[in-house]
Amino acid sequence: MERNVGPVMISRIGAILTIPLLSSYPFIALLKGLSLTLVLDCASVLKNAISVSITTGLFLLQNRSVTQEQRGAANGISITGQSLFKAIGPAAGGSFFSWAQRRKASFLSGDQLVFFILNVIEVIGLLMTFKPFLALPDDNIS
C-alpha cells in the first residue's frame, strides 16, 4: 500500500478513519450481550490495524528524512520517545479517565470527554502531516 499511495497518505487516511471510530466507542458501550462483544471486537481490530498502518507510515517517513549515517540515531530517539509514552500513557490515561467519570457536566460528561480528547489529539496528529509541519524527504516521495 505504501508504494501505491505513499507513507504520508497512509498516515492521513489512518488518522481520518480513526476519528469516527474513536467517536463511536461511547455509543458502542450502550450495546449489550453478543452485539456488544462483536461490535467491540471489530472496532478494536480495526483500530489496531489502523494504528499499525499509521506507525509504519511514520517510520517510513522518518527513515527517508535522514541520511543513512543518521538513521540509527533517529530510530533510537524515535523508539525511546515511543517507549516513554507507552510507559506514561496508561497511568496518565487511567487518572484522566477516572477524573472524567467523576465529572458531571451537561456537555461531554464522563467517557465522552475522554474520547473527545483522543479525537483532538488525533486531529493534531493529522494536521502535523501537512505543510509547514511536515518536512518531505529528499526524494520527494509523498
From TrEMBL:
Subcellular location: Membrane
Name of this protein: Protein ZINC INDUCED FACILITATOR-LIKE 1-like
Coiled-coil boundaries: none
SUPFAM superfamilies: MFS general substrate transporter (SSF103473)
Superkingdom as given in the UniProt entry: Eukaryota
Bilayer topology: Multi-pass membrane protein
Transmembrane segments: 12-31, 37-61, 113-134
Entry GO terms, CC: membrane
The entry's keywords: Membrane, Transmembrane, Transmembrane helix, Transport
